[in-house]
Amino acid sequence: MKSAWLLFSLFIPVVVFAKSSFITVNGYDVEYEMAGTGKHTVFLEAGGSAGLSDWEPIFESLAKNTRVIRYSRIGNGGSAHLVKNYSSEEYAEEARLVLEALNIKKPVVYVAHSYGAYIARRFAATYPEWVSGLMLIEPASEHDVDIMRRIDLIKAEKEIAQVKLDDLKNGMSNQYLDFWAKRPLPDYPEIPDIPVTVIASIKKYENPPVLFFTDEAREMWGELHSEWANAFPQGKAVLTDKSYHFPQEDEPDMVAQEIIDLLERIKQ
C-alpha cells in the first residue's frame, strides 16, 4: 500500500540542486531561478512537497525559447523551512508576491505539476490579470477519490484511509490538510477564457496497487481531465500512455513542446 501514496502526489522527487537565487516573501527566503528571454514569461509551480528541482528536465530547454521562472514554495526545496498548514489560497497569494518581488509586469503563463494545480487554479481565478495561459501537468484533482469510489465504494474507503495514514508516516506536509479537504476548486468560467492545456497520464499499470491505478480508473482519469480542459473555449487535453505522474521527466521533449505550443496560442 505504501506505493499508493503516489496517487495523491505528496511525495518528494529526487532532488537535483540548481544554481539558485533568493528573494524575501513575507519575511522568508524563497529560492528561485530565472533564465531566458522572450515575449512571454513561463512560471513553473512544483507539485506536492517538491521544490524547483521538479522542473530540472525541461528548465534549460524552455529557457532557450522564452523567459522562465521556477521557485520553491516556502517550506520546500531550498526555501526557508516552515511548518504550516497552508491553503491553496495562501500559496496563490505567495506566488503573486514572488512575481511582484521579481518585478514581473506582464501576465505569466502558469505551468503547474500535481498539487501545484490546486495553486494554479486558485491563482488564475483570483488574479486573472496575472495569467495569460495555463498548463496543468498530471494535475491533482479534488475528484480523484471519487473515481475510486465509483469503482468500489467499500474498498475505496479502506484504501483512501490507508493512504492518508501512509502520508503521515513522515510527518504532516504543509499541504496535507488542503489536499485532503477536497474542496471545490475553480473551473471555467471562474478561470477566464485563456489558452489552457492539461497533460494527463493514462498509462496502465501491470499490477495496480490500489483502485486508482486500475485500467478502469486510468480511463476515468483521462476523461475527467479531458472534460475539464475542453470546458474552456481555448482548452486542450493531452493524454499520454508513455509516462506516469512525471511527464516532464519521462517525456521532457513532449512537455516542453506543449508549453511552446501554448505560448503560440496566446494572442497578446
Descriptive report:
With 268 residues, the protein is of the alpha/beta class. 36% of the residues lie in helices and 18% in strands. It is built from 9 helices and 8 strands. Strand 3, helix 1 and strand 4 (67-71) form a beta-alpha-beta unit. The longest helix is centred in the middle third of the chain and has 16 residues, at 153-168. It is globular, with a radius of gyration of 17 Å. It starts with 20 loop residues before the first strand and ends with a helix. The model is unreliable at 1-6 and 8-18 (pLDDT under 50).
Key traits:
268 residues, alpha/beta, Rossmann fold, 9 helices, 36% helix, globular, disordered N terminus
The geometry reads as globular
First and last CA, distance: 47 Å
Largest sheet, strands/sense/barrel? 8 strands, mixed
Mean pLDDT: 93
Strand content: 15-25%
The CATH class label is Alpha Beta
- Strand order, biggest sheet? 1-2-4-3-5-6-7-8
Write the CATH fold name: Rossmann fold
What's the CATH H-level superfamily name?
Answer: Alpha/Beta hydrolase fold, catalytic domain
Q: How many DSSP-defined strands? A: 8
Structurally, the number of domains stands at 1
Low-pLDDT stretches are: 1-6, 8-18
Brief rundown of the structure:
By secondary structure, the chain is of the alpha/beta class. It contains 9 helices and 8 strands. It has a single domain, classed as 3-Layer(aba) Sandwich (Rossmann fold).
Provide the fold topology.
Elements: E1 21-25, E2 28-35, E3 41-45, H1 56-63, E4 67-71, H2 88-101, E5 108-113, H3 116-126, E6 131-137, H4 144-151, H5 153-168, H6 176-181, E7 196-201, H7 215-230, E8 235-240, H8 247-250, H9 252-265
Parallel strand pairs: 3-4, 3-5, 5-6, 6-7, 7-8
Antiparallel strand pairs: 1-2, 2-4
Helix pairs in contact: 1-9, 2-3, 4-5, 4-7
